[in-house]
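PROTEIN DATA CARD
Card holder: RNA-binding protein
Chain length: 99
Origin: Sediminicola luteus
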Amino acid sequence: MARRKHDEHLSLSDALKEFISENKLQKGLDKVEIQDCWKEVMGQGVWSYTDQVQLRDDTLIVRLNSSVLRQELSFGKAKIVKMLNQHLGRDIVKKLILG
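Structure generated from the sequence above:
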């Protein structure tokens, strides 16, 4: 019986993946997921200065309301992109623009 439940779970997962793929919903889901990812990876301190997080294709645009923080983060853009992609489990972000 336990085996059957496990198989049903897998088929539901596969069905959801197929539905997302067929209806081209992955980009929309990525746009929502990246906002949560930014908050989790960068922490509450950075999040409190974040006005907007927007994913356009493979570019993440983050609007910050602190010029000092923007300058500090600009030195570590490559590291931030790497941490975000690791957290997401796939390479979604290729470029980071801080504004």
